[in-house]
Amino acid sequence: MSAPGITMDVRRVGDGVAVVDIKGEVTAACEPVLMSAYEAAGASTSRLVLNFAGLEYMNSGGIGMLVTLLVRANRQRQELAAYGLSDHYREIFELTRLDEAITIYDSEESALDGATR
Amino acid sequence: MTDLAGPEGAASAEQIGLSHREAAAPPPQATAPAGQAPRDASSWAAKVERLEVAQRDGVRGTNVAGRRLTGPVQGFGKMWQKTYRMEAGPGIEPAAAIALWRANFPDFWPRGNRFAGALTGINPGDVALLDLAVGGGVKLSTGVFVLYADTESFTLMTPQGHMFAGWITFSAERAGDGTVVQAQVLMRASDPLYEVGMMLGGHRKEDKFWVATLRALSQRLGVPEAPITAGTTCVDPKRQWRHAGSVWHNSMVRSVLQTIASPVTALVRAVRRGGNGAPAESAAPVQNEE
After folding, report:
1. What's the pLDDT tens digit per position in B161-210?
2. Does A39 contact chain B (CB < 8 Å)?
3. Are A52 and A30 in contact (CB under 8 A)?
4. Does residue B257 have a pLDDT over 90?
5. Which percentage of chain B shows pLDDT scores above 90?
6. Residue A99 sits at the chain B interface (C-beta within 8 Å)
7. Which of B14, B25, B47 is nearest residue A27 as measured by Cβ atoms?
8. Is the CB of B40 less than 8 angstroms away from the CB of A59?
9. Taking Cα atoms as reference points, which of B238, B222, B287 lies closest to residue B90?
10. Could you tell me if B16 lies within 8 Å of chain A, comparing CB atoms?
11. Under a CB-based contact definition with an 8 Å cutoff, are residues B105 and B122 in contact?
């Protein structure tokens, strides 16, 4: 799934776990792409892991979009996790206190380990 | 307009997108090379654990120092998105509208309310103190934090005890031949008391507040007759009862108590001033009242 400035690829990595590889610019403009990726991950997904290693830019609209995704995931009783955040974007997650709802991991391995705890 | 959007009762991200400008924005031309700060770095506030503020003229400035920031995730009530849009016409450039708004933000607030921010305007990391008229002679004393600011938008975030937990984004964008200037709130009432208050007229009061703000801005922009619309969407109808304890920080309750106790505290200050000859007020940081 892609749009100008952003691509989001979905990988199934285990039973009920999907990883979304985010590359590019996260703003409200990429909402259709993110929601397509969310739907591609499937309703059977119990845990969605967002890979931000390719994140190049994010504004407050992007944060608002992640809140939207969180509401949808919570409604489906799905857990959201993230990894690959640079120090800068990790601080933004902490500043906005999104990290209290989206668990942040240092690597895909730890994020997937978290999924199996 | 109030509706519950989406087939699952949750609004789409497009509906709660912080601005159409962002939704329509072309991709940036360049990205930061590896090892360099990202392009958005200067637009975001630095991380803070708890707010620190200095006293400012004209506002009480209580209920802010030492408080944590709260977003929609930390709120109690239903999650709402409220959008207030002003069609400013073709003669207003978005960046010019935002520059004016950022530089003179307090000037556009409705009469009776005070916004005491930095003298330099709205910049990431600033903390502004608010005294809001809530009726009965009581001023609700709280504040806001500047979370994000660039040339075409800026976002404020609320501290514990504020009426709502969330963000307000002010933006301007080209839409067709004209410019649309917008204030958009993504919020939950902070605690059960505020949730009841919002249901009993709080939402209506807030709508009037932001429409009046946009009207004042339209007059300064030279388009006093610019059409203004307000829309509300319920993003999440569920209440987060695990955050009900936030009522401890309720700035309304504390402001009422502070108003009642003000004659006593003024007397105590006068006695202290008489006792040691020091001024009762200084520019020292406001002490946390926790």
Report:
1. 999 999 999 999 999 999 999 999 999 999 999 999 999 999 999 999 99
2. no
3. no
4. no
5. 54
6. no
7. B25
8. yes
9. B222
10. yes
11. yes
pLDDT at residue B41, rounded to an integer: 92
Q: What is the mean pLDDT of chain B?
A: 82
| Angstroms from A115 CA to nearest CA on chain B | 22
Check: CB of residue B167 under 8 Å from CB of residue B55: no
Instruction: Give the position of tokens 């001024």.
Output: B279
Q: Residue B51 has what pLDDT?
A: 92
Q: Which residue of B has its CA nearest to A73?
A: B10
How far is residue A92's CA from residue B10's CA, in Å, rounded to a whole number? 25
Contact between chains at A95 and B45 (C-beta distance less than 8 A): yes
Report residue B70 as tokens: 């709260």
Residue B17 token pair: 């997108």
* Residues whose CB falls within 8 Å of the CB of residue A43, separated by 6 or more in sequence, listed in order: A76
Whole-number Å distance between alpha carbons of B189 and B237: 12
Answer yes or no: do B235 and A71 touch at CB < 8 A. yes
Interchain proximity B31–A57, CB inside 8 Å? yes
Which amino acid type is present at position B16?
I
Picking from B154, B88, B165, the residue whose alpha carbon sits closest to that of residue B117 is B154
At residue A45, what are phi and psi to the nearest 5 degrees?
A: -70, 125
Report DSSP state, residue A44. T
Quote the DSSP letter at residue B54: B
pLDDT at B258: 78
A52 φ/ψ angles, rounded to the nearest 5 degrees: -100, 15
Q: What is the pTM of this model?
A: 0.81
Q: Which residue has the higher pLDDT, B113 or B100?
A: B100
Residue B113 near residue B141 (C-beta atoms within 8 A): no
pLDDT at B255 over 90: no
Separation CA A1–CA A19 (nearest Å)? 13
Query: Distance from CA of residue B102 to its chain's centroid?
Result: 13
A91 and B150: CB-CB below 8 Å? Answer: no
Nearest Cβ partner for A67 among B12, B22, B186: B186
A44: left (phi over 0), alpha (psi -120 to 50) or beta: alpha
List beta partners, residue B4: B234
Closest residue in B to A90 (Cα) is: B47
DSSP secondary structure string, B217-235? HHHHTT-TT--EEEEEEEE
CB pairs under 8 A between A and B: 131
